[in-house]
Structures are given as structure tokens and as C-alpha cells.
Amino acid sequence: MKAACWNGKQDIRVETVPDPAILNPRDAIVRITRTAICGSDLHMYNGHIPGMKAGDIVGHEFAGEVVETGPEVKQLQTGDRVVVPFAIACGQCFFCRWQLWSLCDNSNPHATRLETVYGQSGGGLFGYSHLYGGYAGGQAQYARVPFADIGPLKIPEGMDEERALFLSDILPTGYMAAEQCDIQPGDTVAVWGCGPVGLFAQQSAGLLGAGQVIGIDRIPERLEKAREQAGSITLNYAETGDLVEELKILTGGRGPDRCIDAVGMEAHSHGFEFYYDNAKQMLKLESDRPVALRQAIQACRKGGTVSIPGVYGGGIDQAPLGAAFAKGLTLKMGQTHVHRYMRPLLERIEKSEIDPTFVITHRAALERAPEMYRTFAEKRDGCIKVVMDPWAQAA
Amino acid sequence: MAQKQAAWQDWMKDKNWETWTALGSGAALLAWGIVRRSAGSAALAGAGGILLYRGACSRRPLTGILAPVTPEPRRIRIAATILQPVETVYEFWRRLDSHPEVFQRVAAQRVNGETLSTRKLELVEERPNELLRWQTRPDAPVRARGAARFRPAPAGRGTEVQLDVVAQPRGGGLGELFRNALGHDPEPRLRTLLMRSKQLLEAGEVATTEGQPRGSRSKPMRVMTRVLPRKEKDRQLEAAV
Fold it and tell me: Which among A54, A293, A351, B131 is most buried, taking Cβ atoms within 10 Å?
């Protein structure tokens, strides 16, 4: 089959590799019909995710058709159309039973490695480094899906895969980011980043009762999407002065009640701070560039919530923990417990409350993955979201 | 800063004529080997590197190679909570050899040319649902003894298993360095054993990616990290993340 393989920093190649096989009784094989590039794939692309090996198949947002099931798979049958959550969960450990699916105890074959780094290990993820299990990802024609009865969600008959595809990651991720803010009526929610997760977080904040939603970015077409699709007020941080002051003006001096960092470890800003963090990151003195997180903590109103769907991997400098402490903030973060949100969000899609396809700007054949990664990473050509067809012929 | 200084002073305090000789000659050999850039000099550079490393980490970098001392026995303690009743977990561990997917892949590595299997272990004490104690038989390739303790976790959260193993490494000096480099450190294997038993007991299967497809490994894998002792490796890993 064809698969997009990571070969080093900014080096994705489409290679012909063997087809996957059932390895465990609870596995299924899915013939992938749609697969997307996630913003978090770019951290890997830019070489910020440790534990990658050349040849690793990447990708964790995919949907397709079940073509084979292991002997212990009871709920799925050959021919079922499914969307697969990026986090792999056994469904039977303490964490799965508590609905903390991405923290599954039993799905990471290399858990002991991650334990050395983080104290304890979360569950396995598709196509996201050997620290997270080294599972082959979904930017391929087929994928092996472990614990197939637990994760994959059947796509209702008649629904286009593209409308269900983002249940695999970015829609639940944006939704959980807003949900864990505990939004109260009238709250102002500020969202750093108007990429797909930031846009879904803004839309979800509105659905969950926010009075005012503020989207922050520097890319004009992304800000426009935030205004159009989520009804947000937008701030272009490259044009406004002090962002934290600007947010105070918009909230009567209180600061946003809830702040969401949908940017993560590779944040940009236009000040000295960006160059400081970028230099430290290049010299490996700091693994993550936490500009958005610092601003979110600084801006958040007293007693408010800072929710972090953006990915962080290691250590950060100059984290204003003093401000977070002094203001009594609540910090919420973590990999999304996708399984918890797939069904309720599918219902919202069915009722047309959400149409996640609005984020898609590029559709291409999988063979063009290297070019699509570059376009997405450089935010060229208005690129917000790339969806690929593994079976289409490259034009 | 004060801490850094203290660490530096500790490091300096350990140095003697032998370590300085090793550091000096190691550095010289390494530099010479690198400058000459031939096949033979790569070996010299390697030897220089080993001398440097031993000079930095050992109090007896030279005589330690020639007259290896008997190393200290190594004690390893690890614990996990398994979401199953204590009876089930105890019974599983008592019959570990009937779960080859957990035990054999972990333990069936060749140690000194022999395979360690449960047949080389003997049960010396069993207290149902509380404790199992083993030791290696006299003909086993390594000498080790260990205990597994079981107790119910609070609020119906399963069973806490605590492994306590004392292993007597063979040889020492260079030999141990190479054995560790080759992955014979028992700790990761014990951790894997405990993790896999938990996976099998809870999820009904051992998570794996062995046999899945991948592209060509276009770049050589990083293997150097294995050569360094564990603590240093962890620090590097932390720094890398």
C-alpha cells in the first residue's frame, strides 16, 4: 500500500510499504478513504516530537471502511464505515472506565519509555512517535486499528465521510477545550489560534453559552473564518499593540473569563519574546515556545480558567505561575478523550448544528502529502485544513 | 548555581591520579584518532572515548578494567495497579510460565549464552493472595531472587502488585558496561514484564506493533543512547523532550 512516512525534519515521503495485518485478537483493518493532516503533525514535521524513527507512517485523523476483523471484535463487521479516534484505548482499565480515554493504561506498548520522561504514560496514539507506542498512522491506504470495538464510530448511512472525519480529533479537541472551561452564561472566551482546533473551540464556546468569543491569530483568512463561522470578535496580534491590554479593553478591565491556548509549543508572536524562545528552542535549551500560554495566563480574569488543547511536549521557561497562583486560575489540559465526545458530536452534526467541513481548504491525493505538508506548515495558499484521498491519482 | 557548584566539587573530589591519567590519555587518543581519519584510528578514537568515559564516571578507570571487582547486587523495586481482584492477579503470577506472551518475550533473552526461563526459577514461598517469593536455581545463568507482594487497592481499584528483585550481576568493570550496553540491564525488562501482565489481565491482550508496516529507514537509528548508563540516559531523554 501507499503510506506517508516521516523521514526526518521537514521530510515526508510517500512510500510503498506492506499492507497491515491483524496482530491482536481485538484488531481491525480499515481501508482508509479520507485522511487529514493535523496541526499537531506539524510539530512532528518540524522535528519537535522526540522518539520518531525514519520510515514511521504518520497521520491520526482518518475514516474508512472495515475490511477485516480479529476474532475478538464483536461490534464491527466488514463493510462498516467508521471514523477512528486518534487516541487508542482498551476500554477496560481504570482510566477508560472513568472516561479518561486518552490516558488508557494498556494501549502503549512502549509505556515504560514514556514513564521515564513523564512519570506515568498515557495511552498509545496513531502515528505519533515511539514514545506514544509507535503505531503506524492513518495517512495511508490501510491501517490496523487496535481495540476496534472501543474506538471506531460507525458513520451513519448516507453521511459523507468528510462530515464525520474530524470526529477523529480536531472537533472533539476543540469541543473539550471549551467544555473544560466550565463556561457560565455571559462569559467571554478568548481563543489563541484560529487554526482548525481554535475555530472549533470558538464554535463550541458559542454552543456552550459564551456571551462573547474572541479569536486571536495573525493570518487574515483564519480570522475571517472565525468571524464568519463562529461569530467571534477577532484580534490580529500582529496589528494590535499589547494583546493583554487589548483583551482588557474588550472585557471592561476584567480580562476574558476563559482563555483557550489552541496554539501549543510552536507559538509565534511579533515581539522580542518570540526570538528569545525560538533561539532557546533551536539550541535545545527549551523544548516548547509557550508565548500563547504566557499571554493566556496573563490575560485571564481572576478565578478564571485556562484551557490548553495545544500540544506541549517538554519544559517551558518563564511560565507565569505566579500570575496563575495570584489570580487563582484553574488550568485544564491534556490529550483529548475523543471517545467521550464522538457520539454526542455526531448527533450535533446530524442535526446540522455543526458542519465541520468548513475548515477544509485543500483536498488532494495522498501522493501529494509532501507538498501538502509544506503548504500547511508555511500557511501558504490560505491553507487551514488538508484532507487527502489515499486512492486518488495525483493530478 | 550553588547546586551546580556543589555537583562540580563532588565530581572533582572523586578524581585521583588514575582518573586524571585516564581522562588525559583518553582525550589524547580521541583527538589523535579523529585527526588522522583512517579506519584504524577510528578504533583508537573509540578506545579514547571509553577511557574518557571511565575517567569521568569511575574512581578506578584503569585498574577497574584489569581487576574487575564484584559489583554490588542490584535491587529493583517497581509497582503497578491491576484492575482485577487480588485472587485473579495472584493466580496469574503464580502461573507466570503459562503466559508465554508476557514472560517469554521478556525473559527469553540469552544471558551468558543461556536462556533464562521460568524453569530456571524456583518458588520458595507462597502466601495465597499476599506474597510469592522466587529465586534462581543454581544452574541458572544469573543469580537473582525476588518477591511479588499483592494487596487490594483502595475503593475497588484492583490489586497493587509490588515487585522487589535483587539481582547479582556477573563480573564488573568493562564487562558490566558492555552488558548494560547490550540491553542486559534487568530493570527495563522487569518493568516490561509487569506492564505486559497488566495489559493481559485488563485488556485481554498485550499491546504490540511488532509486524506492522513501515517505510524504509532512510537514516541510521540512534543507538548511542544505550551505551550510557541509565541515569544519564534519562537526563538526556528529558532534555530532548
Answer: A293
